Recover the amino acids of this structure.
């Protein structure tokens, strides 16, 4: 067989190009389906939600169908899965965006210097602020972090470096997993009963809230630190041992610095996770209208509890205004809380970047 | 300063699995000893048991005796950390510490052991070690840069510099050149030649020519059969090993007729 009569066969069997939909096909399909769904929605008087739901269903059918006709089966499945994944992403993001939009739009007008620097002491009606709750949240969460970060990190070091494969290690891992699932109100009641047993039935203080929060925080810190320590290659530990470095120095000077970025990120996220807890603080830290700097004495308001009380006991609306003053304060406090959590998250990212091992 | 190592009736286990059986040998001071043999026959395991790195793996243990300078390495009173300070090791894969600069990597052995060094002393150690590892010229202008930014061959030479910076008595090398180009390899072989005046060197290699070039003595390890423990077939001066070995299987392996 010569190459001359082989060539046409080869060309036929090696067809690499197929008809493709243009790049703007998904956009066009989306616009058309939204418009098409608008017709019955308008005629039958559906809400926006019904309209968009119908548009989504039409789109999920139309684009793969079009692709099937032009590009073939494999491509149609690809388009369908891509469309499904994008819509799942969109549906997941909607509540988040909605929530942030609502809180910002309702709370932004409330934020003022007075709102951030005044407590609720002797406030009747409008005015007052969240200063006492802000201080309370920072102190209680800070104390919770001080309690749980060392315990959590040391427990994780034990699990990864010493307790691997031992019975005790397995039990600790199991208990940490169980602790992750403790409902926060149970943690609050545990802290309350502990302090009531120790200091009498009237005891309410910020430290109780801190203990309750640390119960929720420790398992998160242990888990994230454990994952980070496991990521440190065994090669590095061996390199260190081979230089005659004892195990504890290897852990403190080689393993921990290598994993530091991830550990700090995990710790910050754990703080962000517990800073919004309401139930345990409601139970054991209590509620007050005045600023309290002492974690160990008297009740201490925190932002989530403040929001709760502002909403359930909003006061009486002044004449001519529809909403009682507490509602606006609750929105403002919610916005401040969300901003704090966001700042913590951003901080975690920045810190993670700074401490990550560098190349080049 | 360099020490000789006497190994007698050494069995090495991973849990219940016997990996290396019945090794007897004498590693001479101020010489280079090479371990050769097919993959999985226990050369690296043997090497790691010489500075008690073997027991870092959970369940790993050793039976028999290894004597260094008249002391039994596996005696209950011996501190493995002290052993590793005297018997350094270079691994197959380069493993510089990712959080440290080139400078700090070389000094890691000293720094991590909290040895206080003056700036001039540190500079001295870094320059001497990097020069010995044939890396000084390439990195002297960027000592503050991270060690992970170097190429694979440079990283390996950095690891050698790090190992000799603590001035051990014995240097164990586990296929140190398997990730290196021929130029770096020959640099490291030259380095081994220089180091042997001060150190006892044991090197595991898959490269027959390398074993022939650098070593004074050679040990050939082999498996009796798959699943059986590895054992030392022959331990002889390299010259004899490569010209007139005692065992047929040694000759078969060295000449490439190994089944």
């Amino acid at each position: 067989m010569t190459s001359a009569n082989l060539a046409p066969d080869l060309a036929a069997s090696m067809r690499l190009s197929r008809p493709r939909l243009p790049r703007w096909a998904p956009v066009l399909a989306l616009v058309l389906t939204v418009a098409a769904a608008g017709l019955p929605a308008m005629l039958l008087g559906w809400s926006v939600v019904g309209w968009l739901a119908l548009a989504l269903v039409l789109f999920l059918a139309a684009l793969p169908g079009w692709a099937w006709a032009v590009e073939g089966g494999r491509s149609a499945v690809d388009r369908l899965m891509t469309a499904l994944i994008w819509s799942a992403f969109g549906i997941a993001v909607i509540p988040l965006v909605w929530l942030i939009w609502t809180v910002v739009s309702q709370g932004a007008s409330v934020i003022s210097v007075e709102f951030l620097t005044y407590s609720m002491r002797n406030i009747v009606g409008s005015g007052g602020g969240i200063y006492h709750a802000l201080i309370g949240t920072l102190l209680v969460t800070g104390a919770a972090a001080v309690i749980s970060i060392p315990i959590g990190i040391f427990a994780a070091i034990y699990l990864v470096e010493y307790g691997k494969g031992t019975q005790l290690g397995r039990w600790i891992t199991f208990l940490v997993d169980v602790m992750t699932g403790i409902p926060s109100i149970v943690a609050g009641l545990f802290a309350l009963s502990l302090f009531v047993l120790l200091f009498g039935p009237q005891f309410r203080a910020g430290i109780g809230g801190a203990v309750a929060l640390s119960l929720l925080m420790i398992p998160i810190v242990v888990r994230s630190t454990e994952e980070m320590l496991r990521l440190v290659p065994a090669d590095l530990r061996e390199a260190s041992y081979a230089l005659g470095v004892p195990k504890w120095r290897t852990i403190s000077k080689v393993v921990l610095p290598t994993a530091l970025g991830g550990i700090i990120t995990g710790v910050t996220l754990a703080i962000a996770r517990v800073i919004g807890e309401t139930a345990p603080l409601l139970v054991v830290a209590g509620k007050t209208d005045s600023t309290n700097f002492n974690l160990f004495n008297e009740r201490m308001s925190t932002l989530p509890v403040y929001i709760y009380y502002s909403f359930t006991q909003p006061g009486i609306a002044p004449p001519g205004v529809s909403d009682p003053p507490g509602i606006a304060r609750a929105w403002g406090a919610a916005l401040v809380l969300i901003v704090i959590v966001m700042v913590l998250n951003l901080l975690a990212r920045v810190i993670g970047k700074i401490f990550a091992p560098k190349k080049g | 300063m360099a020490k000789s190592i006497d190994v007698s009736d050494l069995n090495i286990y991973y849990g219940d699995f016997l990996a290396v059986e019945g090794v007897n040998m004498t590693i001479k001071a101020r010489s280079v000893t090479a371990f050769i043999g097919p993959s999985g026959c226990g050369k690296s395991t043997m090497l790691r048991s010489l500075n008690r790195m073997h027991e870092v793996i959970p369940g790993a243990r050793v039976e028999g005796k290894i004597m260094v300078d008249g002391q039994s390495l596996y005696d209950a009173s011996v501190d493995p950390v002290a052993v590793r300070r005297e018997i350094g090791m270079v691994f197959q894969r380069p493993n510089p510490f990712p959080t440290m600069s080139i400078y700090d990597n070389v000094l890691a052995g000293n720094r991590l052991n909290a040895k206080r060094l003056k700036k001039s002393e540190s500079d001295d150690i870094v320059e001497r070690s990097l020069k010995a590892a044939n890396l000084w010229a390439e990195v002297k202008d960027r000592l503050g840069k991270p060690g992970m930014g170097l190429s694979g061959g440079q990283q390996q030479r950095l690891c050698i510099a790090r190992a000799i910076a603590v001035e051990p008595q014995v240097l164990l090398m586990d296929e140190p050149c398997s990730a290196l180009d021929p130029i770096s390899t020959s640099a490291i072989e030259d380095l081994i030649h220089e180091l042997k005046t001060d150190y006892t060197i044991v090197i595991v290699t898959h490269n027959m020519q390398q074993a022939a070039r650098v070593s004074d003595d050679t040990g050939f390890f082999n498996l009796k059969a798959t699943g059986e423990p590895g054992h030392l077939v022959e331990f002889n001066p390299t010259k004899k090993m490569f010209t007139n070995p005692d065992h047929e299987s040694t000759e078969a392996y060295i000449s490439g007729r190994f089944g």
About this structure: The two ends of chain A are 56 Å apart (CA to CA).
